[in-house]
Design goal:
The longest helix is centred in the middle third of the chain and has 12 residues. The chain has one domain: Alpha-Beta Plaits (2-Layer Sandwich), CATH 3.30.70. It has 3 helices and 6 strands. It has a 4-stranded antiparallel sheet. Helices cover 27% and strands 36% of the residues. By secondary structure, it is of the alpha+beta class.
Length: 96
């Protein structure tokens, strides 16, 4: 069982996530790869004191990279798009 601050790794700040935030009250976070939607929902509600209506997740595999003769992969990621109740906001994103 992971704790809230272990599940939520960092906010996603891109043009698309900014438009989602202003248009439909959705926030994007990078989350722990093995966390599920229920754990993500509980972590967001616990850390930011908001009401979560829906959680959508997207997994992306690591890309193959090369540096000279050495090959490897970048880290796999999981992104969560969280829909909040109307009127709730997360202060981390304000002013970004």
């Amino acid at each position: 069982m992971l704790l809230g601050y272990q599940i939520i790794q960092s906010p996603v700040v891109t043009e698309k996530s900014t438009s989602l935030r202003s248009g439909s009250n959705q926030y994007s976070f990078y989350v722990h790869v093995k966390s599920n939607k229920i754990e993500i929902k509980k972590a967001i509600e616990q850390l930011f004191k908001v009401k979560v209506l829906k959680v959508n997740t997207v997994k992306s595999r690591g890309k193959k990279k090369r540096l000279g003769r050495y090959e490897g992969y970048t880290s796999s990621r999981k992104k969560a798009i969280v829909t909040l109740k109307a009127g709730d906001t997360i202060k981390v994103f304000e002013g970004v």
